[in-house]
Amino acid sequence: MTELAAVKAALKTQAVETPSWAYGNSGTRFKVFTQAGVPRTPQEKLADAAQVHAFTGVAPTVALHIPWDKVDDYGALAKYAEDHGVKLGAINSNTFQDDDYKLGSICHPDAAVRRKALDHLMECVDIMDATGSRDLKLWFADGTNYPGQDDLRGRQDRLAEGLAEVYERLGDGQRMLLEYKFFEPAFYSTDVPDWGTAYAHCLKLGDKAQVVVDTGHHAPGTNIEFIVTTLLREGKLGGFDFNSRFYADDDLMVGAADPFQLFRIMYEVIRGGGFTSDIAFMLDQCHNIEAKIPAIIRSVMNVQEATAKALLVDRDALGAAQRDGDVLEANAVLMDAYNTDVRPLLAEVRQELGLDADPMGAYRRSGWQERIVAERVGGTQAGWGA
Amino acid sequence: MTELAAVKAALKTQAVETPSWAYGNSGTRFKVFTQAGVPRTPQEKLADAAQVHAFTGVAPTVALHIPWDKVDDYGALAKYAEDHGVKLGAINSNTFQDDDYKLGSICHPDAAVRRKALDHLMECVDIMDATGSRDLKLWFADGTNYPGQDDLRGRQDRLAEGLAEVYERLGDGQRMLLEYKFFEPAFYSTDVPDWGTAYAHCLKLGDKAQVVVDTGHHAPGTNIEFIVTTLLREGKLGGFDFNSRFYADDDLMVGAADPFQLFRIMYEVIRGGGFTSDIAFMLDQCHNIEAKIPAIIRSVMNVQEATAKALLVDRDALGAAQRDGDVLEANAVLMDAYNTDVRPLLAEVRQELGLDADPMGAYRRSGWQERIVAERVGGTQAGWGA
Amino acid sequence: MTELAAVKAALKTQAVETPSWAYGNSGTRFKVFTQAGVPRTPQEKLADAAQVHAFTGVAPTVALHIPWDKVDDYGALAKYAEDHGVKLGAINSNTFQDDDYKLGSICHPDAAVRRKALDHLMECVDIMDATGSRDLKLWFADGTNYPGQDDLRGRQDRLAEGLAEVYERLGDGQRMLLEYKFFEPAFYSTDVPDWGTAYAHCLKLGDKAQVVVDTGHHAPGTNIEFIVTTLLREGKLGGFDFNSRFYADDDLMVGAADPFQLFRIMYEVIRGGGFTSDIAFMLDQCHNIEAKIPAIIRSVMNVQEATAKALLVDRDALGAAQRDGDVLEANAVLMDAYNTDVRPLLAEVRQELGLDADPMGAYRRSGWQERIVAERVGGTQAGWGA
Amino acid sequence: MTELAAVKAALKTQAVETPSWAYGNSGTRFKVFTQAGVPRTPQEKLADAAQVHAFTGVAPTVALHIPWDKVDDYGALAKYAEDHGVKLGAINSNTFQDDDYKLGSICHPDAAVRRKALDHLMECVDIMDATGSRDLKLWFADGTNYPGQDDLRGRQDRLAEGLAEVYERLGDGQRMLLEYKFFEPAFYSTDVPDWGTAYAHCLKLGDKAQVVVDTGHHAPGTNIEFIVTTLLREGKLGGFDFNSRFYADDDLMVGAADPFQLFRIMYEVIRGGGFTSDIAFMLDQCHNIEAKIPAIIRSVMNVQEATAKALLVDRDALGAAQRDGDVLEANAVLMDAYNTDVRPLLAEVRQELGLDADPMGAYRRSGWQERIVAERVGGTQAGWGA
């Protein structure tokens, strides 16, 4: 197989999981803008996600968020997904949208609130049993707003205790992915603020506990690809929540703010042996002002383009320049791949997969958008609150 | 008058304006937590604000937000305020909470939306005429989320045009205070992102246009007191929106995150001749998880403490050390004031004003909180959406 | 002329000024690493700069730094440059490398130090008269390290006074370019910390005073292209000091850290009518660990590539999408240009100019590096201190 | 013992280690300013450090930096120190000031450079054997400036290998303290950029490997006290390098930039059981523009004041408020301690220790400064390069 053929083959194996909530409404604290055609039910979200997969070919699974995607019969939901050409993916818990969680969930000073949160997490694992999901994605909004508000160390103890209980509940083939976040919604301390904290907890829990990197959850200037490298080296990278940012956790389309950074991240994934199904490549974005399905298609394409460029890096030449200490040449080898226009290559890959070379145009021409705008009238649009 | 007497006299003239919306519910994009006893009407907000003034003695005015505080009869509202011991302050406009404003307000690419936003601003000046308010505070959520989304320069042209129309509408004794903000809710570009932009626009508009400094609206590491110094030197500082932050625009209680910074800001205000009624000292905060009225009392007290320390700086000694280039001594003179415990001094000031020396305790003992929790049942609690 | 021909024509007019000091040694506070073949004299720096121009065709001028490039006869130096195919460009002043400047230069509390600094600036204008340079580039290291150390407002007064004196000295056709910098070497306050401060001073001085944007001198997250847009709109953009950064003022090769940002900046330059000789496009970089001449060639090429992409933006399509409020399409139009591989186009441009299509390779093959390594033995290598 | 007596007793046990290099010259990349009276030899640095201890009573040890403090006879140096009333403390290695280290030291791509760096580290342990020092403080300037320059993962492998070799060399009662740093002098990647990386390496090495927190080595906005809490909880906090910063690694006097942060850090130290001799409390500062010995005395006093306030926190009241979820009361308990003026208390502590209540004044009156200015004439002043 030629090198280019190998790159194409790798690109055909790519899988990006899209999140059910990205199909619904989202916004900032100032305003959630509504859009015509937005899904009202988990089923409608899956139907939209199926469109993304149909046009890109590399978005075969859909992450659920509980309770936003609660249904009576998860087996039926899984069947619904498969009938539409996709599968259910990770289960995302929610321990932040109840008045009880004002001061935290599993780190809350009150044992009763901690119990409530843990019961919810256990329910999520029950749902995983029903859906066949592998991954439980845990993001905790826990933290404090004011110095002194709570005991930072006590909160870590409660966190460890809660995580251990959930870990014990995991079945064979199930994992917990622990997400860290620099800040927001807590503004003084966050209980899992960085990869080091997530890593330390996962290390004690065991092999089923892995760290998930949300690309928007870091301090300004953080070298995210270094974290990817380190977690892969430690065997503790479980997956990604992809999005992009200029400032805080902006949740813009992945690759929109800094496409070079996304390329560097994907290069370290490949270099570290992480381009496998053991790593969950997920989107976690908010399409506050742009059309949602096209935005998600664009995001998937952005991940593809970064991956294609990363696969094109001439690693032999790079290694030689690095060993020689030739700073400019090593940088040039990397940039040579980055500066390549990979869109024609990806068009070929799509055509070889039997897809339209232009997913954005194909979606636009498909009439799906007009159909959902016409059909999805009445009811309550899905959003972060539903 | 002794020096300490002069400090006390100055502290007795202090006036901090509290914002009507801080008495209502607020939150993050993840959740707005409700609190018992929260006002349902503009009148109830004023009643709460009156408590803050009653216990601190230095919070005599209340800023309104339109349309959240819309009433049929503003004259009656002003009378209601005065009957409760406070007055109406600045009018705050809102051009961000309507679906039409998804891509901006007075910078929107569509002239119809710009017209709608401008009509709202004109209405705000009408309200100022009715309430006798001096200041129109303008904060625009305008900006873009993605590179290319709109023409950055075209948006500046529209901004200038819109501001000019509002400026023309201002009556004698009325001002517009233009607020800048680093980011949020827009995540790629913001149309008034920094003091320089606000200053450049205000300079062209004329003397009635002044810049307002929100202490939470800067890039990480920004030296805010330098901006205060510069705007005062240019005669373009109109006022403050006080709050504090660890990360982004956290809107925590002023002085909670970095009390030393607040002291430095107040020192530059005093040094620059800004401790006068020409500068509007306003709070703009979100008490997402803490009790609202006590949080506002605490905030007012924090401003008082920073002011007292700033007034205590031995400016003769400071100037001498500065002229001598004695870095350590100059710093020591400033720190000497900062390290002083001014709480006993402020207790005296309060007692001399006929107030309880301990506003937090006095409020707690007053029974007001229990009363509003008991009485304010039913209805819709005030918040950012109402 | 076809559109592509217009793009090529524009690219052929491009002019990037390289700085004499980038050919010498530089480093961090921890260590200045030496390199073989580094120039020992201003003449040797010019000879190296001539190589950069010879291989790129778009680096026709060289900025000088006084006193590092002090010579007895500036006319002879200009002649030397022209004999080598380049011209002398901006004169850069230095008011930070003398023990007297420990607490500042033209903002120093001591009038004698201010006088010394001003005399140096006057001497720089004398040199401009001799070299025929148009631009005096002013960067002040002035600031303070500790709160209270000096009077922030007094320093602004001294700054204004000093700038006014230099402004008066400028001849016809001469300009002063005032640079701002967020921080370093001062760590508490900097006397010209942001574009707003530089703008406010330049506005008062007059038309010959313009702001220069060093791309590494901003707070984390700052939208630099917005500043470019605004300064162009105000008629106050005088030029650029190009370099790139991940953290602080890293002074890496321009385009190395965030090529997408450089593209966005160049797009705003073009959109704002700034792609003319009125704007000085200068490099200001430190090649601490990489070979210097090749690094500068690479930097010039990076500016070319960003410019080519910016010129390729389909502005009609972009404007249409912006007017329609089509967020995704407008972003796509911009990204379409960015994602284009412009290296073949630039190879053509070079060949049409009679140059090698591959400047990096051509320089490597030229033997210049081996020659200077062999010849430049002994003497004192040029660096920031000489 | 009353509570206040306990606070005083604790303050009397405090020990802050001062660094030999802070007595010498330092600066930024732009300029190192010289000062009269600066030491020329390790012995003169120790003599200055002895003054700091003589006037504060809590600075009994002095950290050495190799090779800056290289001597022929370390036993004699230790004796010299003890004769002057202080002891030798941690040994700091230097693997950044040799031309060979341009691309790194123990992470360098070339095995010969790695060997050289490791030999130096081994020599440092030899010196520890001679001086009786407990701690080897390791800070590596290793990293890269450009994407692609070297293999991020390969560098981690080399780092792990190098650290393991040094770890094996440690004797009983000896420790290695691994320091992390966000950036500088490397500007793209740093090989130990955050506490997580240092922690992961130390965990694998064993109990003698501990993390050291330099308070200036974090991304903007980082909650440092959270890291302190976590490392103490994990049993992996080895010590501090105290200093303060507004922007990057400014190395200002500890407590000068954000005294509230220093207080919060000291509170977490005490709450986490870290106020013991197992934690090395060291200064690591640069007194670029201020007089050095007084700056170090002030720094020691700033640590004392923060410690005193942290010891004064009413932990019973704090715990009760935290358990009640009373956000404002819990914050108020903490702030009550912070707002206390502890200078009178510390004056008493000093007097009870037989010291002058006013260390700054006492030093000024001692005549030491005049003496060293007069006596230390000629020779080469100590600095980062010597």
TrEMBL record, chains A, B, C, D:
The record's Gene3D superfamilies line, in alphabetical order, gives:
Divalent-metal-dependent TIM barrel enzymes
Documented EC number(s): 5.3.1.14
Where would I find the Xylose isomerase-like TIM barrel domain in this sequence? 50-244
A GO molecular function term, named singly, is:
L-rhamnose isomerase activity
For this UniProt record, give its keywords in alphabetical order, as a comma-separated list.
Isomerase, Manganese, Metal-binding
A Pfam short name: AP_endonuc_2
**Enzyme category, top tier:** isomerase
Classification via NCBIfam families: RhaI_grampos
Cite the PANTHER family for this sequence.
L-RHAMNOSE ISOMERASE
Instruction: List the protein's name.
Output: L-rhamnose isomerase
Name of the coding gene: rhaI
